[in-house]
Design brief:
single chain; mainly alpha
């Protein structure tokens, strides 16, 4: 029996029921697999393996296209869905597959935005279910955000510079090294872009590094300092494990905490 639009929309966004979690876990795994395939293809690998990776990547793109069509079909407000940030990321993830039939090489740059599809899972404990501490979840989110930004910038600079400067940007690792050095404003200068678009991306990296990295790292430090000032006191109501040393009530649910033993 075919699912109705409401049920289709529910299972594509649900992260609690077994079917909803399974669907979204598969999508997350395909995003990581697709990103891993593209990284592997920047290295010198046998043609047979490259062909196999291309075939797998094509299948993944078709699945992404079907997923996007189902989300659009099941959405009540289709216009609102189209302009949703997650939907734009989804569209950018599959657009190179269709436009790739035409000889537009620069459109491959959009493929690196697939990793941003995982952002939707950061809004819940779906990927971090084993982390019971609220601060621990925030800690992982910050690390994932930093990694994602560096990953996307690495993919962009590789796509732009590899064809014109293969000695400096031979593999994804070269581009990743350049992105980390640039965004942390270390600037060794041993790897530099030569194209105008590459230089523009470098400026954006520096601005992102100046504006975002110190803020995210500062937040990480604050979280670490805050965690060291907390003690393990498990709330019997919601299960939150860590609280301030002088806390009598749970900061999540408000119920009274069990008394702590004084050594």
């Amino acid at each position: 029996m075919l699912l109705s639009r409401k049920k289709t929309e529910f299972y594509l966004t649900d992260l609690e029921t077994p079917l909803g979690k399974a669907i979204n876990l598969i999508i997350a795994a395909l995003v990581l697999l697709s990103s891993g395939i593209f990284v592997a293809q920047t290295y010198n690998i046998p043609d047979s393996i490259r062909w196999l990776l291309d075939a797998i990547d094509t299948v993944i793109l078709i699945i992404f296209a079907v997923e996007y069509a189902l989300r659009l079909w099941s959405a009540e407000n289709k216009l609102q869905y189209i302009f949703n940030i997650y939907s734009i990321i989804d569209l950018m993830a599959i657009l190179p597959f269709f436009i790739g039939w035409v000889d537009i090489s620069f459109i491959r740059i959009l493929r690196w935005f697939r990793i941003l599809r995982l952002i939707r899972f950061i809004d819940s404990k779906f990927l971090f279910g084993s982390i019971s501490s609220e601060d621990g979840i925030i800690f992982v989110r910050i690390l994932f955000t930093l990694f994602t930004i560096i990953f996307v910038y690495s993919g962009l600079i590789y796509q732009v510079e590899h064809s014109v400067n293969p000695q400096a940007y031979g593999t994804f690792l070269d581009a990743f090294y350049f992105s980390v050095v640039t965004m942390t404003t270390v600037g060794f200068g041993d790897v530099t872009p030569i194209s105008e678009l590459g230089r523009l991306l470098t400026v954006l990296m520096i601005l992102t590094g100046v504006a975002l990295v110190p803020w995210q790292v500062g937040d990480l430090i604050r979280r670490l300092v805050k965690t060291t000032n907390q003690v393990e006191t498990v709330c019997l109501s919601c299960g939150l494990q860590f609280h301030d040393q002088d806390a009598d009530f749970c900061k999540r649910c408000g119920n009274k905490l069990p008394s702590r033993k004084v050594n």
